[in-house]
Amino acid sequence: MIRVLLVDDQPLIRSGFRALLDLEDDIEVVAEAADGKEGLALAKQHLPDIVLIDIQMPVVDGIEATRRIAADPALDRVHVVILTNYGLDEYVFNALRAGAAGFLVKDILPEDLLHSVRVAARGDALLAPSITRKLIDRYVSQPLHPGADTVLRALTNREREAVVLVAHGLSNDQIADRMVISPLTAKTHINRAMVKLHARDRAHLVVLAYESGLVAPRSS
């Protein structure tokens, strides 16, 4: 069962999402919150698999709430998905840097919402390659981590290759095909790279790959 926490200051949005999610046999909405502060408290209480959280809210906004969730060891299995009215913007990029697993626009189709919740629950990033490139092209002009070279040297050649392919939006199966290895070995390379780079999830790994210079903006 995928446990979901809804955090949005608009009751109508929360009730609409809840009505849709609760219809699914494998998804359960465990709680709702009207701001980030309440959402943090409920996340600690219920330990959901997914937190669907609005970016712009009173008291504590979605970016700060995401940052606090990502920094809390007790919530390391919680995947945060940002909800936005505006689509691709700097708020979304900042949320991804803070630790979000991806983002969804609030007018998303019902079937796409359900698919996205299941994808995030598996630990996969909700970032299409085209979206990733647009984000990076717009908001990353140079590496943001001065010690990135030292960190990247900790990766093996195969781990670096796997990270590059993750940043290009490939799935584990596609990475395995490209590297001529098994999907399990591909997953192992990715997981080891995430540990070495202290990446919370695949979305964070993608951001780190670009910020470190391992993958250049506009690369194919």
Write structural notes for this entry.
By secondary structure, the chain is of the alpha/beta class. It has 11 helices and 5 strands. It has helices at residues 11-21, 36-46, 62-71, 90-98, 110-121, 129-139, 148-152, 157-167, 172-179, 183-197, 202-211; strands at 2-7, 27-33, 50-54, 79-84, 102-105. β4 (79-84), α4 and β5 (102-105) form a beta-alpha-beta unit. The longest helix is centred in the last third of the chain and has 15 residues, at 183-197.
Reconstruct the topology from this structure.
Layout: E1 2-7, H1 11-21, E2 27-33, H2 36-46, E3 50-54, H3 62-71, E4 79-84, H4 90-98, E5 102-105, H5 110-121, H6 129-139, H7 148-152, H8 157-167, H9 172-179, H10 183-197, H11 202-211
Parallel strand pairs: 1-2, 1-3, 3-4, 4-5
Distance, first to last CA: 37 Å
Secondary structure: number of strands? 5
* Helix proportion: 40-55%
Q: Helix and strand succession?
A: EHEHEHEHEHHHHHHH
Count every helix, treating DSSP H or I runs of 4 or more residues as helices. Answer: 11
Radius of gyration: 17 Å
Strand order of the largest sheet: 2-1-3-4-5
What proportion strand? Answer: 5-15%
Largest sheet: 5 strands, parallel
Mean pLDDT comes to 84
Which geometry do the CA atoms define? globular
Unreliably modeled segments = none
